[in-house]
Specification:
By secondary structure, this protein is an alpha+beta fold. The protein has three domains: about 70 residues, Uridine Diphospho-n-acetylenolpyruvylglucosamine Reductase, domain 2, CATH 3.30.43; about 150 residues, Uridine Diphospho-n-acetylenolpyruvylglucosamine Reductase, domain 3, CATH 3.30.465; about 110 residues, Alpha-Beta Complex (Uridine Diphospho-n-acetylenolpyruvylglucosamine Reductase, domain 1). The protein contains nine helices and 20 strands. The strands form six sheets. Strands 6, 7, 8, 11, 12 and 13 form a six-stranded antiparallel beta sheet that branches. A four-stranded mixed beta sheet has the order 1-2-5-3, covered by helices on one side. A three-stranded antiparallel beta sheet has the order 14-16-15. Strand 17 and strand 18 form a beta hairpin. The protein is globular, with a radius of gyration of 21 Å. The protein starts with a strand and ends with a strand. It binds flavin-adenine dinucleotide.
Length: about 350
């Protein structure tokens, strides 16, 4: 039997530690409880909002008018299919527990995604990525529940609209489904060491690293950057990267390079190479951190209780008792400066509730 509580402050359920009260709040531990909670909210005619690990949300100081559902749907199932293993994790399982599970069993494909905070469900919604890997490469299908009808559906990978840090659950079907479990298709293989930070980490090694070594390297690098919330890591109150790396057309990179060079010349090392990456379609992904630096927003900057992480330019941080409004104001200031200087719109990554 689910307990529906009233007037519960959301801040403790978020990594930012920001957010006012939800009118109603409950925790669900399986699909049946989730369906019950959705039916309860529908019966009352109120909105629902799903909370996973709270690591990619900035909740308003006024809170949420409706039912906040803490997703704690657990469960692990592994099935062998030829060369591949299909591994299903409940959406409320910790993402890093899934990565650890895969790496320990010798499955390649998610080792670089070690240490990303949050739950498995949101990892799919956001198509999380780091150090050259992203969820879409390993993902097979997901079971979802329709928020309005309670109907259960299965979406195969090609139906999920996965691309850079997004999916149908974040775009066309935003607020329509709750992800209940996620199935990955993995096989044993070598780890990926393609990203510059990881390459530098292993530069002196005489032999190729194994999966566990790459996982440990990623955890160590993340910890040094204050980006490791799991496993007692050294972390700050944030939502990780606050802005997505923008992808710009090929002709725009030509205009950007001299602008960046001019800014760098007046204040060297603001934008270290590599800061742009050519995409398969010929466009360029640009480091949002680099654009921020060039626009005058650097690591460690603070205004009152909000600021920029001293380890990682992209992470806006709650240094004390910051409010959501303060974080939003700083984000707006950054977006305005980057737009004025480079004509590029920085898109906010976390969900603003
Ligand atoms: C220190 C730090 C480092 C980070 N590093 C990275 C990184 O390297 N790469 C990266 O991609 N991200 C990173 N992030 C962002 C974040 O960890 C991911 O986006 C993560 O997947 C969010 O998971 P969550 O469970 O915390 O989601 P939440 O913050 O709880 O929710 C995020 C959104 O998903 C929705 N949601 C949650 N669960 C479900 C569900 N089951 N069904 C439907 N909707 C749901 C919520 O309603 C909300 O809109 C980082 C964040 C922090 C704080």
């Amino acid at each position: 039997m689910i307990q529906f509580k009233e007037n519960i402050i959301i801040a403790p359920y978020t990594v930012f530690k920001i957010g006012g009260p939800a009118d109603f709040f409950c925790e669900v531990k399986n699909k049946e409880e989730l369906k019950e909670a959705l039916a309860w909210a529908n019966g009352k005619g109120i909105k629902v909002f799903i909370i996973g690990g709270g690591s990619n949300i900035l909740v308003s100081d006024n809170g949420f008018r409706g039912l906040a559902i803490l997703n704690n749907i657990k469960g692990i199932l592994a099935v062998l299919r030829g060369d591949f293993s299909e591994i299903t994790f409940g959406a409320g399982e910790e993402w890093d527990d899934f990565v650890n599970y895969a790496v320990e069993r010798g499955f390649a494909g998610v080792e670089c995604l070690s240490g990303i905070p949050g739950k498995v469900g949101a990892a799919l919604m956001q198509n999380i990525g780091a150090y050259g890997q992203s969820v879409d490469k390993a993902f097979a299908r997901a079971t979802v529940i329709d928020i309005k009808t309670g109907e259960e559906r299965i979406f195969q990978k090609e139906e999920c609209g996965l691309s850079y840090r997004t999916s149908r659950f974040k775009t066309t079907d935003r607020g329509r489904y709750v992800i209940a479990d996620v199935t990955f298709s993995l096989k044993s293989g070598d780890p990926m060491v393609s990203y510059h930070d990881l390459k530098s980490y292993f530069i002196d090694g005489s032999k190729k690293p194994i999966l566990t070594e790459v996982r440990n390297a990623v955890l160590e690098i993340r910890n040094k950057k204050g980006m490791l919330v799991t496993g007692g890591g050294n972390f700050l109150k944030s939502a990780g990267s606050f802005f997505v790396n923008p992808i710009i057309p090929k002709d725009a990179i030509g205009k950007l390079r001299p602008l960046a060079a001019a800014c760098n010349a007046s204040n060297p090392n603001q934008c270290k190479e590599p800061w742009s990456w050519e995409q398969k379609d010929g466009r360029y992904k640009i480091s949002a951190a680099c654009l921020m630096n060039l626009a005058g927003f650097e690591k460690g900057m603070r205004t009152g209780s909000v600021g920029i992480s001293s380890y990682h330019t992209l992470a806006l941080v709650n240094y004390g008792e910051a409010t959501a409004s303060e974080v939003k104001n700083l984000a707006l200031e950054i977006q305005k400066a980057v737009k004025e200087k480079f004509g590029i719109d920085l898109e906010i990554e976390p969900d603003i509730i």
